[in-house]
Amino acid sequence: MTRRTDWAEYARPVDPQGRGNRGDGGSVGGGDGAYDDVRGEADAYDGGAPHRDGRARGGRGRGRRRGFGEPADGAQDGGSFRSSRAEEGEPPGDPVERARAICLRLLTGTPRTRKQLADALRKREIPEDVADQVLSRFEEVGLIDDGAFADAWVESRHHGRGLARRALAQELRTKGVDSMLIDEAVGQLDTEQEEATARELVARKLRATRGLDRDKRLSRLAGMLARKGYSEGMALRVVRQALETEGEDTQGLEDEGL
C-alpha cells in the first residue's frame, strides 16, 4: 500500500450509492414507509466519504482538520442527556424516527461502526429491536460499512500515526469490527511496509536522543516503537541499525530486550 491518504478531511457518512444497494433492486426504501427518505437525507450529507477502495467523493471539508474517528464539535457517541431532543434534531415520539435521526447526526461527524452506533442508541434508550432494524437498514443502503471503516482506519492510522498491525487490530476490536474484517484490513500492511514505517519513526526521533548514553537511546527509541505495536524483534533491529549509522557501538544489543 503506497498511496497515502489522510482521511481526516473526510467527515461524512459512507456514500449510499453503489455497494450499498445490495438486493434493493433500485430505490432505497421503496415501500418501506419509515425508510422512504433515507437516501434523500443521506445525500444531503454526502460530499467526501471514504470508500473501501480508498477513493473519496466530493470536495474537502472546511474548518479544523479532525483525526479519523474523532467526533465533530466534541460530540460523543449517543450525545448528551442534558441536551434536549429538539436541540439535537431528534423527532419526538416514534423510536424508529429517533433512531434514524441519532444515526444520521453521528454519521455526519465521522464514519462509525455498527457497534458504535448501537452503543449510542442504547444510551438513548432506543429499544433493541428498533435499533437492530434501523442499523440493518443503514447497512443495506451503505451508510454503515464496517469493512470500509476498517480499511480507512488502517490507512489513516498507519500513515498518520505510524501504528503497526498489532495496534491497529486492537483499536478496531475495541470499535466492534468483526475479526475477519480486521484481518482483511490489517492485511493491507506487510512486514516490509511496517519496517519501513518503523525506520521513519526512529529517524524522526533519533536527533532528540543525541547526548544520551547508548542504553537510554535504545530504551527510548525501542519503547516508542513498542507503544505503537511493533514487535520487540523488529524494534530492536531497527533501532540498532539507526544507532550504528550514528557511530554507536551496538555489539551485544541483539541479545537485549526492551
Can you offer a commentary on this structure?
With 258 residues, the chain is mainly alpha-helical. 48% of the residues lie in helices and 0% in strands. The protein starts with 37 loop residues before the first helix and ends in a 13-residue tail after the last helix. It holds the Pfam family RecX_HTH1. This is Regulatory protein RecX. It is found in: Cytoplasm.
Give a quick summary of the entry.
48% of the residues lie in helices and 0% in strands.
Low-confidence stretches: 1-37, 39-66, 71-87
Instruction: Give the count of helical stretches.
Output: 10
Q: Which whole number gives the mean pLDDT? A: 74
Strand content: under 5%
General form: elongated
Helix proportion: 40-55%
Number of strands: 0
Taken in chain order, the helices and strands follow as HHHHHHHHHH
Radius of gyration: 22 Å
Which structural class is indicated by helix and strand composition?
mainly alpha
Largest sheet: none
Distance between the termini: 29 Å
Q: What secondary-structure arrangement, pairings included, does this model have?
A:
Elements (H helix, E strand, L loop, with lengths): L37 H8 L49 H15 L4 H10 L4 H13 L5 H16 L3 H10 L4 H8 L4 H16 L7 H14 L4 H14 L13
Helix pairs in contact: 2-4, 3-4, 5-7, 6-7, 8-9, 8-10, 9-10
